[in-house]
Automatic annotation (TrEMBL):
UniProt keywords, alphabetically: Signal
Name of the featured protein: Uncharacterized protein
Upper classification of the organism: Bacteria, Pseudomonadati, Pseudomonadota, Alphaproteobacteria, Sphingomonadales
Record bears the keyword Signal: yes
Region listing for Disordered, in residue ranges: 242-262
Annotated signal sequence range: 1-22
Length: 343
């Protein structure tokens, strides 16, 4: 009963495919986003999305990409869900275990939420996996540098990606859950939506007043967004003018492939849909179309839950701003020692 309750809470708009009912339906079918809810409006007449929408409840080992063995199944079987739930419970126990032994490690650092039944956040392509890189996309990926990649040496600042350097996690990466700092808060004023993100303390400004875009020559780490309203409960956001390059972005969430080496190009376009399905739930969908990097577009879907009490605190990143220097000096010393040993 506890697992069923967790599942019902976690799947939100996907509630028709939950618990024991999942065995009686097609697990490859993702139900359409409900559109019958009528959102409250702001004093100036726009759908009111204001409030806290942290995505920490999604940090329950659901991967970005699906296990190939699961094929086109968007949902776990009962057995698979039980296995994930057990794994999550073991992770959640780490904090208490460290307290008992007087230690402080990843259990005090990483957050974990309840398991849910989704096999992957990606819903299109139907196999739940990122499309293949184009030849140029593979080239850009091979050029990316990051502390997340094993066996890499560091000589200068361009050996680090933008997340390493506390500049940005990029898009669409910033919209996916991570092991910590999952706070999200939406603010609105007439003709403008602001989306505050706890990670790196960035705020996305999204005009909804119909203003024209900026020249393509101007590139921003989070791009340039324009929003409009559909059906009285959906905010549609289109983002272009993303800063390209081998260190521009990485996916960086559970089940991310390629050790954070997913680049983005100047031709990339991101389309997001924020659909209120109740006063306390939003279905978030994001599609990345980057013909330079990927052979096809891909779409992910996440279910948000309101939590207006979620506190967003300082994001220190690396304290004292010494970690990049430490990586470089340590890497240089390591290479000098290897050369000396080799001689």
């Amino acid at each position: 009963m506890r697992a069923l309750a967790v599942l019902l809470a976690a799947t939100c708009a996907l509630a028709p495919v939950t618990g024991v009912l999942a065995q009686a339906v097609d697990l490859t079918v993702v139900p359409p986003v409900p559109t019958d809810f009528k959102a409250k409006t702001t004093p100036w007449g726009e759908p009111d999305l204001r409030g806290g929408w942290p995505i920490d409840h999604l940090n329950g080992r659901t991967p970005l990409e699906r296990d190939p063995a699961q094929g086109n199944r968007a949902f776990l079987t009962e057995e698979e869900f039980a296995q994930r739930d057990e794994a999550v419970q073991q992770l959640a126990q780490r904090y208490e275990n460290e307290d008992k032994t007087g230690t402080m490690g990843i259990g005090h650092w990483a957050e974990v939420a309840n398991a849910n039944r989704r096999t992957s956040w990606i819903i299109d392509p139907p196999n739940g996996r990122l499309p293949a890189f184009t030849p140029e996309g593979q080239k850009l990926s091979d050029e990316m540098r990051s502390t997340w990649a094993a066996g890499q040496s560091f000589e200068w600042t361009d050996d680090f990606d933008s997340w390493d350097r506390c500049i940005t996690r990029g898009l669409p990466a910033s919209m996916f859950p991570f092991m910590y700092n999952n706070g999200m808060r939406i603010f609105q004023s007439p003709g403008l939506v602001a989306l505050q993100m706890e990670m790196v303390h960035e705020t996305r400004l999204i005009p909804t007043d119909g203003r024209a875009g900026i020249p393509t020559q101007i590139e921003n780490w989070l791009g340039e967004s324009r929003g409009h309203w559909e059906n009285g409960n959906t905010l549609v956001v289109e983002t272009t003018n993303l800063k390209p390059g081998p260190s521009a972005t990485n996916i960086g969430t559970t089940g991310s492939p390629r050790e954070n080496d997913t680049p983005i190009s100047a031709q990339a376009k991101i389309t997001e849909r924020f659909t209120m399905t109740s006063q306390d739930t939003i279905v978030y969908e994001v599609t990345l179309n980057d013909p330079v990097v990927f052979t096809a577009p891909w779409t992910a879907r996440l279910d948000w839950q309101r939590d207006d009490d979620f506190g967003i605190f300082e994001y220190a990143c690396h304290e004292g701003n010494v970690q990049v220097r430490n990586y470089i000096t340590a890497s240089r010393a390591e290479r000098a020692q290897e050369q000396k040993t080799g001689d």
